[in-house]
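User: Here's a structure from my thesis project, written as structure tokens. My advisor, Dr. K., wants to see whether a designed sequence matches the one we expressed. Can you design one independently, without my sequence as a hint?
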């Protein structure tokens, strides 16, 4: 008991420091742990991290008995499961795109967001000796474009100087992605993951079954969706899991640094300029009764920023660091509260300082998000979410993202949205049985730009011409989706 209290006190101190303090000229984002609206903590090792936790609904199916059976795999300890998610949403301006709202990004256009299939053999890092496992995921639908990795299901950086242009596209809206392909080796309390997997930062994640809401917070969009490398975890007891690993960079499967040719690095003397190797590490603390958890995860490594619109303009390389903290508390059998604080920075971003005293070339972004869930009964759960996200230098938001990630798009997108983004969402989850869930929601987003910023992220015009932005600073959105698990 004393050891638990010591760890929880240390975790609370770390949480306070990360949420309230800004590092000198720096900032970051993401982490993982959560609860469903019913107030139950749910493991998401199959959906998210090495053996970690993540977000709001479940890892594989919530159901206990999948409909898919592959005897040859089952005899070797593998299970096969999936889900289909489809929905529709609209904004009040009639714009074809719902501004910076991701995943559910099209206006009055029905979307089959995810046709998801996974095969997995879980490991047991429980002190019982050696074990092995692995997993492969396939995602087909309109969400594919958000989960690609360069060198696997996205083109290499030198082709477009954009981090993730999908290469397995069937059309502008539909395509295929492979967000996970990894093997696990476990011995007693240690698990080693080798391969391509979801990043363990952030409360919300890509799989529809792992989230309460149809739409997502901005902080989920501007963290890595996937990592490729080696990530280890150590779980000495039920109250602590420690992570550390080496990966190949944000959403990168096999793309080396461009030292020559198109978009070549112009500051080749920067420390580690030729290396994509990056670090991830952190810890998840849990109370002994499982009612509270605190996850602190950080990533750091070199990433690229293009200097212009032509391949001969080259790119700058600089350190990108992200730190994410998520605290979850199951307050009662009905009420669950979650708060996430992220801060991130990119050196050599080729942007001017965003505020007085900021180092030139440094881009910063940070965010705070809160969720509250209330379980009315076994079928109905309500939720509310509020987020503040600051893109200090206009480094991140290029809209619409679907156009940015489309091969050979002539430039029907725009950026430069330096300022503060807010979003407030209310919604319901209705579960008529253990295979279906319906998720209606209402959302309002607004943007307060920095002085001199004229780009608008909402309204008509966004994505309708080369370099065109919207004409509004706010947007109402309504949407609903349905998920069938099998």
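Assistant: Designed independently from the structure alone:
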């Amino acid at each position: 008991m004393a050891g638990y209290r010591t760890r929880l006190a240390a975790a609370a101190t770390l949480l306070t420091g990360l949420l309230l303090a800004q590092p000198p000229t720096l900032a970051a984002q993401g982490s993982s742990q959560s609860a469903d609206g019913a107030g139950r903590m749910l493991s998401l090792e199959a959906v998210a991290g090495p053996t970690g936790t993540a977000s709001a609904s479940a890892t594989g199916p919530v159901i206990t008995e999948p409909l898919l059976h592959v005897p040859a795999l089952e005899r070797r300890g593998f299970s096969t499961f999936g889900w289909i998610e489809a929905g529709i949403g609209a904004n009040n301006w009639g714009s074809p795109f719902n501004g910076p709202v991701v995943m559910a990004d099209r206006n009055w256009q029905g979307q089959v967001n995810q046709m998801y299939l996974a095969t997995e053999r879980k490991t047991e890092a429980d002190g019982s000796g050696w074990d092995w496992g692995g997993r492969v995921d396939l995602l087909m639908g309109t969400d594919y474009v958000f989960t690609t990795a360069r060198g696997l299901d996205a083109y290499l950086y030198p082709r477009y100087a954009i981090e993730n242009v999908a290469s397995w596209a069937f059309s502008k809206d539909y395509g295929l992605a492979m967000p996970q392909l990894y093997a696990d080796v476990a011995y007693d309390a240690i698990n080693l993951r080798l391969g391509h997997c979801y990043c363990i930062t952030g409360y919300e994640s890509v799989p529809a079954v792992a989230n309460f809401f149809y739409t997502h917070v901005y902080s989920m969009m501007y963290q890595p969706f996937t990592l490729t490398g080696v990530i280890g975890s150590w779980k000495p007891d039920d109250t602590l899991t420690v992570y550390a690993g080496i990966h190949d960079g944000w959403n990168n499967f096999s793309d080396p640094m461009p030292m020559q040719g198109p978009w070549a690095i112009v500051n080749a003397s920067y420390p580690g300029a030729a290396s994509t190797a990056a670090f991830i590490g952190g810890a998840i603390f849990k109370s002994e009764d499982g009612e509270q958890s605190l996850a602190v995860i950080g990533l750091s490594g070199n990433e690229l920023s293009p200097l212009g619109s032509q391949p001969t303009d080259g790119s700058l390389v600089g350190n990108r660091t992200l730190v994410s903290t998520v605290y979850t508390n199951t307050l009662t059998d009905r009420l669950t509260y979650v708060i996430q604080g992220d801060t991130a920075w990119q050196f050599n971003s080729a942007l001017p300082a965003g505020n007085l005293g900021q180092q030139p070339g440094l881009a910063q972004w940070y965010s705070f998000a809160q969720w509250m869930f209330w379980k009315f009964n076994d079928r109905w759960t309500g939720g509310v979410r509020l987020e503040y996200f600051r893109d200090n230098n206009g480094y991140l938001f290029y809209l619409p993202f679907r156009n940015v990630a489309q091969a050979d798009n002539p430039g029907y997108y725009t950026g430069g949205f330096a300022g503060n983004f807010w979003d407030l969402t209310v919604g319901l989850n209705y579960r008529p049985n253990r295979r279906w869930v319906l998720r209606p929601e209402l959302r309002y987003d607004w943007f307060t730009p920095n002085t001199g910023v004229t780009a608008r992220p909402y309204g008509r015009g966004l994505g309708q011409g080369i370099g065109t932005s919207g004409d509004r600073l706010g947007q109402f959105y309504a949407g609903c989706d349905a998920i069938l698990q099998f």
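When you compare it with your expressed construct, this may help: The two ends are 41 Å apart (CA to CA).
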